[in-house]
Amino acid sequence: MPWLIRVLPLLALFPAFALAAAEPAAESVPTEAHPGARAFAREVAQRRGLDEASILATLDAARYQQGIVDAISRPAEAKPWKDYRPIFLTDRRIADGVAFYRAHRELLERAAQDFGVAPEYVVAILGVETGYGRITGRYRVIDALATLAFHYPPRAAFFRGELEQLFALPPHRLPQPLDRLTGSYAGAMGWGQFMPSSIAAYARDYDGDGTIDLWNSLPDIVASVANYFAAHGWERGAPVAERVQRAADAQAVAADGVEPSFTMGRLESWGYAPFVHVDPARAATLLTLDGANGPEYWAIYRNFQVITRYNRSPLYAMAVYQLAQAIAAGAAQADLGR
To answer: Catalytic residues, which ones?
Structure first.
């Protein structure tokens, strides 16, 4: 989905696929019960030039969902990499990704040419987010965003912003009326799990029908994910990550998140040697993961950081990277066997 950076300090450890899949049953009550709804409608109407009565009527029809508050309040994932990886790097997810890649190769490669993003990464995002469109969420988006905007104080400001953006999306650019759009419990939509602000900024009408349909139009879905990466600085043809070997006397590296603040040459001088040749001038940083067979050391680059703009968790980005690599290798192998 892309979860924008503002919400991710809280949600970074939620696997996006789990966000779409979790659908707890819940009692519903009108959102109008929250006194902030009327003021919100008035302010949004003034800022956006929209009809206040129409906004308020939509909010009055939105339903509070206790299950949404329960789900977003639970810490989802303090899992180490050795437990996180098997969630996404399954035989089925890889096989489905290979099949999707091969079935839609022309579209994927056209988007890759237009946006500069390798096709396997677009496919991997769709696989991690929604199982290639199988589970996109069944909450009404208006219910999800209204519940979190008015009933979840820790992130109310963020979700009010997303709710405002939902009202501001041009209706003629959406595949359904606003109150019929469905998504995850956090309001993320479609195969790529885009929040309203991401739809506004990055979604693309790639089939030329005048509508952006992230649920049913594969051209729109593929181009929107590719454009999201491109807009956040994806480097065409550049690497994402490389496994490195740590020397016994390697210097400890105080890596600051996923920002590539060193160079490969410096990492090598500190005792972290890549298994393949990498330009020593390439910007990189060190990521240490708790693997099934002990610590894993990775050099990660700018494109890895771009993946974390989709979801802040380095584990998420590594899952996307490894799934993409497996899909590309599987597609190539299948092509050889034709």
So the answer is: 129
